[in-house]
Amino acid sequence: MFSSRLPRDFQPNRLAGALAAKRREGAAILDLTESNPTRAGFAYPPEIVRAFEDPGILRYHPAPAGRREAREAVAAYYAARGQRVEPERILLTASTSEAYSYLFKLLANPGDHVLVPRPSYPLFECLASLEALEVRAYPLAYHGRWSIDFDALAGALTDRTRAVIVVNPNNPTGNYLKRAEWEVLARLCGARGIAVIADEVFSDYAFGPDPDRVTTLAGAEDCLTFSLSGLSKIAGLPQMKLGWIAVAGPAALRADAWERLEWIADAYLSVATPVQCAAARLLIAAESVQRQIRARTAENLQFGHQTLAGSCATPLAVEAGWYLVLQVPRVRTGEEWTLELLLQWDTLVQPGYFYDFEAEAFLVVSLLTDPVIFQEGLARLARFLAEPSVK
Questions:
Q1: In sequence order, what are the residues at sequence separation of 6 or more whose Cβ sits closer than 8 angstroms to the Cβ of residue 239?
Q2: Single pTM value for the model
Q3: Residue 22 belongs to a domain with what CATH number?
């Protein structure tokens, strides 16, 4: 009766079941997985609320790509970062998830393939399945820093590959695309007529400068490219539901893609008028929130390295983002590590398999976590690692 694009099993995984049981018992859980900035104790400026006092929110003037003034505000966001992106190349969506949905409709037919990085964001398979597409992974290799395995990527390309997704910086590994990597990727995709989709939602959260990194592909010229971002991460406002697609690449291809993309958007007209009217003021107010998030994540990252130094947990190199990946001994799987930490230490982390790590054993913690909780949780993890049974 129901579509085969949906999961067959809606049962919670073991970790979710154990967490629910713990909470029913009234346990005080130290949650090191917090990814919602509105629950992380940041001070949001009052300008965010005042941004919705515009009387224009009461008038509906549908525009498939989004209101001109909102797209100009996004163009100004890029200009402040040294990248010229004309409003005519910016299409608004309600979220990056919706942006993926539009792009999958634009680029692919049922049964076609999209390539996604491994490890990375766990939602791609779900979003692709809902469009009747197949996900194929290409690995990121770690040798003191993360990089694309281009031999594996090239081997994964087929005549049904329609797009390669890069998450830049990646979630949860925090690595940026490097200039030399982009040159190779652009050649591969340009020669085969394959689009690149760049998810850049964490691009503003670097831990330090690096002239070799690519912070955005919104100005790419070598192949058809779509850069995605939005208020969820930029302003720490996931509830505002405003994302966008910046279309780049050769002019003729870009124009053809834009015409079709605007047609798709016209069928949904999903972006609410109030957030479009408020977009310019929200993007200005984002600077205050970003400063707080950058300070929090840098503090927690430093504490994590200090606390776990000399332990059997190795923090992997991270350039940006809100997460820290820890490699732990293979005496347990990632799931077993997380379950024991939760059951015995009332501490919640994520196992690497949530992000499709190919090997064991990895744990993922959120650097967005309140520092008091983060520090106590890492201290418990360090004590757990020191137990004889871990060695």
A1: 38
A2: 0.97
A3: 3.90.1150.10
